[in-house]
Amino acid sequence: MPVRPLRRPDRDAVLISAAGLLGGLALWFLGLRSSPLPAGVPGVLALVALGVMCGAELLRRSAPLTALAVGTLALGLDVCAGSLVATVAMYTDVVYAAVLYGRPSVASRIPRIGEVLTVLGTLLAVALLRRPEALLIGFGFGVLVVAPAWTGAGIRRHRDAAHSARLEADRTALLAEMDRREAVVTERARMARELHDMVAGHLSAIAIHSTAALSIGEAKASEEALTVIRENSVQGLAEMRRLIGLLRQEGGEQEPAATPRLDGVDALLARARTAVRDERFRFVLDDRRGPGPLPAPVELAAYRIVQESLTNAVKHAAPGPVTVRLGHDGGKRLAVEVTSPYGAEPVPRAPGSGAGLVGMGERVALLDGEFEAGPEAGPEGKQWRVRAVLPVPEEVSP
Fold first, then answer.
1. CB-based contact 9:50 (threshold 8 Å)
2. Which helix (H) or strand (E) holds 339?
3. Which phi and psi angles does 79 have, rounded to 5°?
4. How far apart are CA 331 and CA 325, in angstroms?
5. pLDDT for 56-86, tens place per residue?
6. Domain-wise residue ranges, the chain
7. HSE (CB half, 13 Å, CA atoms) of 212?
8. What single-letter DSSP state applies at residue 40?
9. CATH second-level architecture of 261-398?
10. Which sign, positive or negative, has the C-alpha torsion 155, 157, 161, 167?
11. Which alpha helices (DSSP H) does the chain contain, by range?
12. Which residues, in sequence order, are bridge partners of residue 383?
């Protein structure tokens, strides 16, 4: 396993080491040191301990546990040779740095080890000296080891808590940004559905009748086609203005526009009859909903499904009956079904993008309903069937 190179000492470590060295030398030359613990130990060894402790200080950030081990040996040598206050002060900083910067698994044990050593040192001093002054040894040991260890532990807890708070804040900001983007995408999809459902029918009628006006040489037929084109253009512009007004309104300054309701399905059928102008088409409404009210989201979705289904019938259906059925499926569910004749190879009378079926499916999915669309065999031949089942909540306000 390769050994990682030590980092260069940081600025604080260099300053503390230099200050400790200068202070220790000053104390030595002034003779301000204690007597050697064993008699006859050369006092010059205190300078050696001072130098070793200064080297340990340089490792306080890059290798804090190594610095603690080296500093402990230097402190033992300093006590034997006659302690310098500078050496002892630097050792307290080494203990503090080991707890603050060391590996969590080891740093968390240093305060406990210091407490145990303090208790054992106090008991040993009392047992050997048998004097009250022996308690001062235990007090000094506590100040030397336990106090800086618990100080480092407290600061480390606050630092880790601040780091966790920053991570949580970043996570919250990320989730908020994701929610914002999802809300924007959802709103854009809703606007796209509304724009398509409101304008597609009018544009389809315009395309069909403009083609007729260009291909038929009769003046009366061209005039009728142009009349239908004008009517659908005006209605399409009105719908566009209503949608733009909804997008521009701010903070309730305007009254919300009226939501389309299923009572307006008759108008949709009349518009479809005008758009086709083919006697072979028959548009029929079979409404079996009953008098009960429906929630606005359900009624709007049902209205748009009928509207888009009639638009598709105008563009693609073969001549024949186009039937709209409204009723209840299983009690509390609104069933919407639109059927239209389906030829072998239907030729579209106006171009389509396929977004209508996607929009209908999205509307039903938002209400947790069921949706299906496709060809099937009917009593009068093959037909295209669109069916949606929309759940209705138990409590509905009119």
1. no
2. strand 333-341
3. -65, -40
4. 16
5. 999 999 899 999 999 999 998 988 888 899 9
6. 11-172, 261-398
7. 24
8. T
9. 2-Layer Sandwich (3.30)
10. positive
11. 11-30, 45-58, 64-81, 85-101, 104-107, 110-129, 134-141, 147-215, 219-248, 265-276, 296-316, 355-366
12. 341, 376
Fill in the amino acid letter for 179. D
Where are the alpha helices (H) located in 102-146, listed in sequence order? 104-107, 110-129, 134-141
Q: What are phi and psi of 75, to 5 degrees?
A: -65, -40
Q: Nearest to residue 50, comparing CAs of 30, 8, 79?
A: 79
- Going by C-beta distance under 8 Å and a sequence separation of 6 or more, which residues neighbour residue 177? none
Query: How many angstroms separate the Cα of 175 from the Cα of each of 166, 181, 315?
Result: 14, 10, 44
Nearest-10 Cα torsion for 117, 123, 124, 126: 140
Q: 373 near 387, Cβ under 8 Å?
A: yes
Q: What is the pLDDT of residues 89-146, one digit of tens each?
A: 999 999 999 999 999 888 889 989 888 888 888 888 777 777 777 777 778 878 888 8
Tokens of 297: 């989201």
> d(Cα 236, Cα 199) in Å, to the nearest integer?
6
Angle at 351 (CA atoms; ends 345, 356), nearest 5 degrees: 95
Rounded to whole angstroms, how far apart are CA atoms 85 and 50? 10
3-state secondary structure of 145: helix
d(Cα 127, Cα 213) in Å, to the nearest integer?
119
What's the distance, Cα to Cα, between the start and end of the chain in Å? 76
Helix pair 296-316, 265-276: axis angle to 10 deg: 10
Residue with tokens 């009928």: 306
In a 10 Å sphere around its CB, with 0-12 CB exposed, 13-18 middle and 19+ buried, how is residue 299 labelled? Answer: buried
Model confidence, pTM:
0.52
Q: Give kind and range of the element (H or E) at residue 389.
A: strand 381-391
Distance CA 214, CA 313 (A): 22
**Structure-block tokens of residue 156:** 């480390």
Q: How far apart, in whole angstroms, are the C-alpha atoms of residue 171 and residue 115?
A: 39
Residue for token digits 């995408």? Answer: 185
Per the prediction, the chain carries an average pLDDT of 79
146, 104 contact by CB (below 8 A):
no
What is the chain's length? 398
β-bridge partners, 23: none
Helix or strand (DSSP H, E) at 390:
strand 381-391
Q: What CA–CA distance (Å, rounded) separates 328 from 287?
A: 10
